[in-house]
Specification:
Elements (H helix, E strand, L loop, with lengths): L41 E4 L19 H6 L5 E5 L1 E4 L13 E6 L24 E4 L7 E4 L11 E8 L2 E4 L3 E4 L4 E8 L2 E5 L3 E4 L4 E3 L2 E3 L2 E3 L6 E3 L3 E4 L5 E3 L2 E3 L2 E3 L5 E3 L3 E4 L4 E3 L2 E3 L2 E2 L10 E4 L5 E3 L2 E2 L12 E2 L5 E3 L4 E4 L48 E11 L2 E11 L2 E9 L6 E7 L11 E8 H18 L4 H20 L3 H4 L6 E8 L4 E3 L3 E2 L1 E2 L2
Parallel strand pairs: 1-2, 2-4, 3-5, 4-7, 5-7, 6-9, 7-10, 8-11, 9-12, 10-13, 10-14, 11-15, 12-17, 13-18, 14-19, 15-20, 16-21, 17-22, 18-23, 19-24, 20-25, 22-26, 23-27, 24-28, 28-29, 32-40
Antiparallel strand pairs: 30-31, 32-33, 33-36, 34-35, 34-37, 37-38, 37-39
């Protein structure tokens, strides 16, 4: 018993020599105080423990993610935004039948699956809930057996998987494990031999609404055989890949070695790929070499439908694939893999091929997955002829001045922007209007915008606009005089007290940009939290 290991590779009995007692189940915990499941068998995880740290509610959240997954009776684990490092010297291990969801922000009322969770962002790998391999080991390690397999009822949803390292599988390593992997950004993982993004051995995970980018295999050993920088399938694996964007991954050729499939490589396996984009994956530095996107051997059969590939073709026109046709990402250089309005992937997906699609399904950005007559290829749904495509948005507070910066990738029929602030993400106040810089409201170039707003005057200015509007719209002289007196009193009070922005805790200020076109239609940027540089 002394040297026995649990399923995660930890000692089967912690403190064995001093009388340690074995835990129930397949996993051993080193902690004396067991976690508690809350209502609906949920355990809550935050970057720092709260309250009792039992995990039974957000007020008592634990910081021990792996222990939460291992707890007896847990069915769901809710994980708040923040970075969670692998529990060195081990990886995170999923548990059969347990669903792990990220993107919650209880501080701002994002508490349940019915709320709009903060989804991972390919443009910012610190955004949302992040699982970090620290460039030491695989981020997720799911190793099961032929008699004890992991099913699709096991879920990982709403995370960035980054900085994983391992010979066979750096981001997610699956053996006899077929979890549902949804709303993930899998990036910056490096493998020595195969499966930098996902390694599947006798595994058939469902992969949907994901971006897999910037993963790499670079083995300089002479004669090395490397394959599958994105997804590696072996041993009769049959993953299903739906509405996923696979781009910018690299496979570097070893000296006198063999390199196979910088995108998806399969040996004796049968992946199915629907409504996806596999583009600009580099095989020895080129996206145009055979096998740069998809390569398979050993009686493999690959199904690809309604997808964009760089060079791979099924040879069947009825599969409705687009071969070597640029998907026209909004800004691939900035890792913005949403589609331009003129992209050939717009409305070219097939709703019937999206398993589990409903009116409530969201894309990776949290927008409606079905926004038009059909769904888009890839992880992002174009909201169709939006007047503005936003670039990066940032906001900071310095010397009692709110500094807001944003850019637009393109503008069409645009009129102006509203800078809005909120404390809870539900109630928003407009504090400044900024006119479009685009000539005639139209532009296909990047335009930068900025605004400096003294917070002392934000409330007073809003109040004055409201009251003067009321005065101008009322012809009663007595009413105008009375309202003017009220205005003076209100303005005096506002000078004596801190305005709305000042009464809000600095770290709680949220900002968004609302674009208004000439017809009154609006587009809203993503919500950001103000950085406090006071």
């Amino acid at each position: 018993m002394k040297n026995t290991k649990d399923l995660a590779g930890n000692a089967r009995v912690y403190n064995y020599t001093t009388g340690g007692i074995i835990d129930m189940g397949a996993y051993e915990s080193p902690y004396n105080s067991p976690l508690e499941v809350g209502v609906n068998n949920i355990i809550y995880v935050n970057t720092v423990s709260h309250g009792s740290g039992s995990g039974k509610s957000w007020n008592d959240a634990t910081h021990l993610l792996q222990d939460a997954i291992n707890t007896t009776g847990v069915q769901k684990v809710f994980v708040a935004v923040g970075v969670y490092d692998v529990p060195s010297p081990h990886s995170f291990v999923m548990k059969n039948g347990v669903s792990v969801y990220g993107g919650f922000d209880p501080k701002y009322g994002v508490n349940t699956l019915s709320d709009n969770r903060i989804m991972p962002d390919p443009m910012d790998n610190q955004y949302g809930s992040v699982l970090n391999g620290k460039n030491e080991r695989p981020v997720i390690w799911n190793v099961y057996s032929p008699t004890n397999t992991m099913s699709n009822f096991t879920v990982l949803d709403g995370f960035t998987i980054k900085n994983g390292a391992g010979a066979y599988g750096a981001g997610i390593h699956n053996e006899y494990a077929s979890p549902t992997l949804s709303n993930l950004v899998i990036s910056n993982n490096k493998a020595g031999n195969s499966g930098a993004g996902i390694y599947n051995k006798s595994s058939s995970p469902m992969i949907k609404n994901c971006v897999i980018h910037n993963n790499e295999i670079n083995n300089t050993s002479t004669g090395a055989i490397i394959s599958g920088a994105v997804i590696y399938n072996i041993g009769s694996s049959s993953p299903i890949i739906i509405n996923t964007t696979i781009t910018g991954n690299s496979l570097f050729a070893p000296v006198a070695g063999i390199s196979l499939g910088s995108g998806i490589y399969s040996y004796g396996s049968s992946p199915k790929i629907f409504n996806s984009i596999i583009w600009n994956n580099l095989k020895t530095g080129s996206p145009y070499l055979a096998g740069a996107d998809i390569e398979h051997e050993g009686n493999s059969s690959v199904i690809v439908k309604n997808s964009i590939t760089q060079g791979y073709s099924t040879g069947n026109a009825g599969d409705n694939n687009l071969i070597n046709i640029n998907p026209l990402f909004t800004n691939q250089g900035q890792f913005d893999y949403s589609l331009l309005d003129v992209s050939p992937g717009i409305n070219k997906g097939d709703k019937t091929l999206f398993i589990g699609l409903s009116s409530e399904t969201k894309d990776l950005a949290g927008s409606d997955r079905v926004a038009g007559p059909n769904i888009e290829m890839g992880a992002f749904e174009n909201q169709h002829a939006l007047p503005v495509h936003f670039g990066k948005v940032s906001a900071s507070l310095k010397n009692n001045v709110l500094l807001v910066n944003w850019s637009t990738e393109s503008e069409s029929n645009n009129n102006h922007f509203l800078i809005q602030i909120s404390e809870d993400g539900n109630s928003w106040k407009t504090i400044q209007t900024v006119q479009s810089k685009a000539e005639g409201g139209n532009s296909s170039e990047v335009i930068d915008y900025s605004a400096s707003i003294p917070i002392q005057s934000a409330f007073a200015a809003t109040l004055m606009l409201l009251v003067f509007g009321a005065i101008g719209n009322n012809k009663n002289k007595r009413f105008r005089v009375l309202l003017s007196i009220l205005l003076c009193c209100a303005f005096f009070i506002s000078c004596q007290k801190k305005d709305w922005l000042q009464t809000v805790e600095k770290e709680k200020i949220l900002v968004r940009i609302v674009q208004v076109d000439k017809d009154g239609n609006q587009t809203v940027s993503k919500v950001i939290r103000v950085a406090n540089n006071q």
